[in-house]
Amino acid sequence: MKLYTSVGPNPHVVRMFVAEKGMDIDRVPIDLPGGENRREPFLSLNPSGTSPILALPSGQVICEILPIFEYLEEVHPEPVLIGRTPEERAETRMWSRRIDLGLAEPMTNAFRSCEARGLFENRRPILSSEAGEELKAMARQYLLWLDGQWQGRQFVCGDRFTLADVMLFAFLDFGEHVGQPIPQEAAWVRDWYGRVKARPSTTAE
């Protein structure tokens, strides 16, 4: 297998997932700022031009992070990062979906519309700067809601470290570097972030 990876939270979350699994997958770096993902030969692998992608020995290419996670969990079941039972898998997927839609999407779209406007405005449709600031506020408010839901837990899914934690960390770490820090009043999230940051997988290249 080969993992085509670059800067950004989505590649980070996949690298972290792979590291938590203890898997050894060849890396192919993609120059995202230089637009390598927007031209051939990358577009032949993934016409949407997004990173990361997982290329299998069969020649099949898996795009989008959630299918990549599902595939890796099936081919390398231990340690379990989605769930052992239907109930555990459903819980992990529920929180991962909430993190994706309520936090990751507004954070990344806000970044494209504000701090990274010069990079993205000629590559893809983006929102106005004013809308980007509103998205930052939405993401912040949603994170405070999540913080309230997770009080008393060790991880997002109770005592299980899962894909939901991996996703949450990668996007919060992204936010810390692009002007969307964890709110001071999000006490559970701040404590959780400090504990997860100590895991070796968070710095996987």
Strand tally is: 4
Instruction: Tally the helices.
Output: 8
Beta-strand share of residues: 5-15%
Any idea what the shape is?
globular
CATH class of the largest domain: Mainly Alpha
* Distance N to C terminus: 16 Å
Spatial arrangement of strands, main beta sheet: 2-1-3-4
Structural class: alpha+beta
**Chain-averaged pLDDT:** 94
Which stretches are poorly predicted, pLDDT < 50 over at least 5 residues? Answer: none
Would you mind describing this structure in some detail?
The chain has 205 residues and is an alpha+beta fold. The protein folds into 2 domains: 2-75, Glutaredoxin (3-Layer(aba) Sandwich), CATH 3.40.30.10; 86-203, Glutathione S-transferase Yfyf (Class Pi), Chain A, domain 2, CATH 1.20.1050. The chain has helices at 9-21, 42-45, 65-75, 86-113, 117-120, 129-149, 163-177, 187-197; strands at residues 2-5, 26-29, 53-55, 61-63. α1 packs parallel to α3 and α4 packs antiparallel against α6 (129-149). The mean pLDDT is 94.
